UniProtKB/TrEMBL annotation:
It comes from Clunio marinus. The keyword Signal applies. The gene is putative AGAP000359-PA. InterPro entries: CE4 (IPR052740), Chitin-bd_dom (IPR002557), Chitin-bd_dom_sf (IPR036508), Glyco_hydro/deAcase_b/a-brl (IPR011330). Residues 486-496 have a biased composition (Acidic residues). It holds the Pfam family CBM_14. Residues 33-90 form the Chitin-binding type-2 domain. The keyword Signal applies. This is CLUMA_CG017789, isoform A. Residues 1-30 form the signal peptide. Keywords: Signal.
Length: 496
């Protein structure tokens, strides 16, 4: 069988082949029999035999891994999660048709044309803005948290962000939340926003396959989520600057058109494969300076739109694998000190080279495993002692990039100074409303609980009805741009 045949047969036959072998071999041998799909690149793949195990493919070699006890591998989200929430694999993936031309619609970076603050690019994406020397600039660390915020994770997030760790200017460290709607607690989100954390959007529904959907769907998901945050967490539209596509599957040109049309400043959905030197954020004025593994990156230029890419995490031995989200690397069999060492090695690739922002992207499940959470605290404690390390929000990182400052100028850098008002979000109420709301999905009606400092809506807010009015399809978002400064009240929504 030649390589091509093996590849095309993979989806249909490999499950049966591996299943048959497992009965006659030990698991150590079956590991060698699992073949990493050649067309899918590095990543985690379901073990066809059991939902408790999965393979991590690194440069074509499969590493067998086990989920922590009680957790199962979810083949859609590609990490271990609670047994009753996990979707066991292998789940056949349909390769999306190439509906748009590949990345050659955009031109190569032209340094003579591309100037800060509006444009930033470099030959291979790894250069420091304004040609500053690495020893003169800060090492930024971006903590990002994806998905719903609620009682399961809020206290864990607060333990990182409650002020116990500070930046060199004495301000508490801050993070960025890419919020999805279902199960979110809007009083808690309001508190995070009021404290100076950045609120950005993922989507309302976290639907699968959004990368292949059209403009209307992306508008409904992204702008609807931004509206929900405005109604129920008092976060004004002008403070929601960023978005992240579910499952890091960007929506080709369609998603970026929405980013552009509705005044977002950046997207953070594109993964950089395991580069030896990490890539800095760039604007989409030119071709993306690295391989696009998801296959759904934008193919044309979007001048002035920033991409804050996710450089993959890994250590030299590839122990734990290669992952854009830290919880997708397999570190749960490590103790807290080993997690610390792993993070330190990964971080040193940035700190000792070009000091590209070190993005630590998490889902809630990192915080469900004590060793991982403790390892993270040890890492933050260690890193926050370094004189040139700053934990900033994604927008604060871009504020630095558009106006790069040397270390000695940072004490007076307003964008990072918490003594300046950093948000319009009001202080949240002490006791929120706990709303029990009916929620209709298809022909099933369910109840969802939602906490907010606002009055309870009639229905659970959802696509097309972000206010929860109970009138389906009520929202009608119209084109808007964020420059010049928007008029909050009239900017984004009219009722039909
Ligand atoms: C908001 O955060 C502060 C500390 O930052 C805490 O004291 C307060 O209880 C929080 N309020 C809510 C509603 O979570
Ligand atoms: C936030 O709350 C204040 C006080 O209730 C209100 O005046 C303001 O319009 C609200 N902002 C948003 C974006 O809803
Ligand atoms: C609800 O929808 C499912 C699938 O769409 C269908 O099989 C079922 O019969 C429907 N139930 C009712 C009561 O309509």
């Amino acid at each position: 069988m030649n390589k091509f045949q093996r590849k095309t047969l993979f989806d249909h036959r490999i499950a049966i082949v591996v299943l048959a072998l497992v009965f006659t071999t030990t698991s150590a041998q079956s590991k060698e029999d699992f073949e990493c799909p050649t067309d899918a690149g590095n990543g985690n793949f379901a073990d066809p035999v059991t939902c408790r195990r999965f393979y991590q493919c690194v440069d074509g070699y499969p590493y067998l891994n086990r989920c922590p006890s009680g957790l199962y591998f979810d083949d859609i989200q590609k990490f271990c999660t609670f047994k009753d929430e996990a979707r066991c694999g292998p789940i056949a993936t349909t390769v999306s048709p190439a509906t748009e031309a590949p990345l050659d619609l955009a031109l190569k970076c032209d340094l003579s044309e591309c100037e800060l603050p509006y444009c930033y690019c470099s030959k291979d994406g790894t250069f420091i803005p304004k040609d500053l020397a690495a020893e003169d600039i800060p090492q930024m660390i971006l903590l990002t948290f994806d998905g719903a915020v609620n009682h399961n994770n809020y206290d864990h997030y607060m333990r990182v962000l409650d002020g116990r760790y500070a930046n060199p200017n004495g301000c508490p460290i801050r993070g960025t939340f890419f919020i999805s709607h279902e199960y979110s607690n809007y009083q808690q989100i309001q508190n995070l926003s009021h404290a100076g954390n950045e609120i950005a959007v993922e989507t309302i529904s976290l639907q699968q396959g959004l990368q292949d959907k059209g403009y209307e769907e992306w508008v409904g998901e992204m702008i609807g989520m931004r509206e929900i945050l405005r109604y129920f967490s008092n976060v004004s539209n002008s403070e929601v600057n960023g978005m992240r596509a579910p499952f890091l599957k960007p929506g080709r040109n369609t998603q970026y058109k929405v980013v552009e049309d509705f005044g977002f400043i950046y997207d953070s959905s594109i993964v950089v494969p395991s580069n030896k030197i990490p890539v800095w954020p760039y604007t989409l004025d030119y071709k993306i300076p690295h391989e696009c593994k998801s296959g759904t990156c934008p193919s044309r230029q979007f001048p002035g739109v920033w991409e804050v890419p996710l450089n993959t995490h890994y250590v030299e031995s590839f122990e734990g694998g290669v992952c854009p989200y830290l919880d997708q690397c397999v570190l749960h069999n490590h103790d807290a000190d080993e997690v610390l060492e792993w993070l330190q090695e990964d971080f040193s690739r940035y700190y000792e080279q070009n000091k590209a922002p070190y993005m630590m992207a998490f889902h809630t499940n990192w915080f469900q495993i004590k060793e991982l959470e403790q390892g993270l605290h040890k890492f933050i404690e260690w890193a926050s002692q370094l004189p040139d390390v700053w934990f900033v929000t994604t927008t604060q990182a871009l504020q630095w990039m558009t106006d790069p400052k040397r270390n000695k100028e940072l004490a007076a850098f307003e964008a990072w100074d918490c003594r300046k008002p950093q948000t319009n979000t009001q202080r949240p109420c002490n006791l929120g409303n706990k709303c029990a709301l009916s929620f209709k999905l298809g022909n099933i009606t369910d109840t969802r609980y939602m906490e907010t400092c606002q009055d309870c809506p009639n229905k659970y807010p959802w696509l097309g009805d972000s206010e929860g009015s109970g009138i389906p399809g009520r929202d009608n978002y119209i084109y808007q741009s964020k420059e010049p400064a928007p008029n909050e009240e009239s900017e984004s929504e009219t009722t039909k």
